[in-house]
Amino acid sequence: MKRRFSKQTFTMGIFLFLILFSVKISAENVSPVTITQLERPIIRYEVIVPDVGEFVTLKCDFHMHTVFSDGYVWPDLRVIEAWVTGLDAIAITDHIENDRDRPFLSGDDNSSYELAKGAAERYGIILIKGGEITREQPYGHYNALFLKDVNLVDNEDPFTAIENAVKQGAFIQWNHPDWNSATRNQFEFQKKLLEKGYLHGVEISNRANWYPYVIDWALENNLTMMGNSDLHGIIMGELQLDKFQRPMTLVFAKEKTEQGIREALDNKRTVVWLADLINGREEWVSKLFLSCVRFGKIQVSNPEKKEGQIRLENISDIPWSLRLMGPVAQGTYRLEPRSSMLVRTRGQGNTKVIVTNAWVKTGTNLQIEVNLE
Ligand SMILES: [Zn+2]
Ligand SMILES: [Zn+2]
Questions:
Q1: What is the pLDDT of residues 175-232, one digit of tens each?
Q2: What average pLDDT does the segment 343-370 reach?
Q3: In 25, 101, 167, 289, which residue has its Cα 20 to 30 A from 306's Cα atom?
Q4: Beta strand ranges found along 13-114 (DSSP E)
Q5: Residue 93 Cα, ligand 2 centroid: separation in angstroms?
Q6: CB 134 within 8 Å of CB 96
Q7: Alpha carbon of 143 to ligand 1 centroid (Å)
Q8: Peptide bond before 303: cis, by omega within 30 degrees of 0?
Q9: How far is the CA of 130 from the centre of ligand 1 (A)?
């Protein structure tokens, strides 16, 4: 019995030894494993919009917030988001009035610019100093862009606040004018600003909101058309970037600098891009379209019937919806970003094209004649 007992003990001892040994082996050989596929460098998703004539096309967003007003992100993240989503320039426009419940961040209204400046230099993003002058209706919200000192703008009276910004050479943009929809026909405050020359631009779009009736209002009052994101949270949480590019103002500038952007805004060389909608002055929407879409040479397949086909190529990331009105080509087409298509032709010569996703007046699409041959 004793021997048998000791044999059992011996077997158990070996068994335990093996377990301990194997544990020891595992502990020595298992090290942390990095799932490399999960890691990635910071990637910039380029947005392709060609230059227009002698002007460089800059992708800009002139309206967004940070923790320094009612936003949820630190200022330099706005720069990184801009770089990742293919922009060239941004303005961080925190609400200027210190009426937010932000006891830890109250104080200097230049802070968001100062904290984003370094990142802007590193990422090559043009950062424009700005702020949002914020009042209840019937006044509304105004972005003051290209400010020198945001602190000097603050004033209890909204007109004086805007005047303070203009005195610094600011460009004043009326934000989300739809917020005035209850009093859409009573633009008393805006009229006063226009008379003084204190209003320079207006948003045709803000975040996912589109104000097509403002296109005519901007034309009548000679204002620059703008379209911006008005981000408050992180961009991934606010916009469907898998479906659309972020809302942006396309600026046709003489040079890729802050001064270049300012000169273009002063001369109203902009187009507003929201989802698959393009809005702007006819001249610039037309020039942009013709820079993006190329009409090839007609390939004749049946000389007797003068039948053939032509290749339409979209070299941009802007989708274009077309109605070809004849006589050479007819039909409704959608030319997706960076794609081309073949369209049937009969004969050759001028053909009317209506670009049904491009708005040059309230309720009016871009219409052009192209010579197909
Ligand atoms: Zn606002
Ligand atoms: Zn805002």
A1: 999 755 555 555 789 999 999 999 999 999 999 999 999 999 999 999 999 999 999 9
A2: 97
A3: 289
A4: 56-61, 89-92
A5: 7
A6: yes
A7: 8
A8: no
A9: 13
Question: Could you give the C-alpha distances from 177 to 96, 133, 193, 216, 228, in angstroms and in order?
Answer: 19, 14, 14, 13, 13
Length of the chain: 373
Q: Are 198 and 166 in contact (CB under 8 A)?
A: yes
Ligand 2 centroid vs 223 CA: distance in angstroms?
19
> What are 112's two structure tokens?
């968001």
- Single-letter code of the amino acid located at 23: V
- Closest ligand to C-alpha of residue 131 is 2
| Helix axis angle, 188-196 to 158-167, nearest 10° | 20
The CA 132 to ligand 1 mean position distance, Å, reads 7
Q: Facing residues of 340 across strands?
A: 313
The token duo for 298 is: 């007609």
Cα 176 to averaged position of ligand 1 atoms, centre (Å): 7
What pLDDT is attached to residue 1? Answer: 40
How far, in Å, is the centroid of ligand 2 from the Cα of 161? Answer: 16
Token pair 């298509």 in the structure block, residue: 341
Per-residue pLDDT, 325:
97
Q: Decide: helix, strand or coil at residue 357.
A: strand
- At CA 229, angle to CA 226 and CA 231, rounded to 5? 145
Residue 262 CA, ligand 1 centroid: distance in Å: 21
Q: The tokens of 360 are what?
A: 């040059």
> What is the identity of the amino acid at 337?
P
> 169 φ, ψ to 5°?
85, 20
**Closest ligand, as measured to the CA of 228:** 2
Residues 6+ apart with CB under 8 A from 1: none
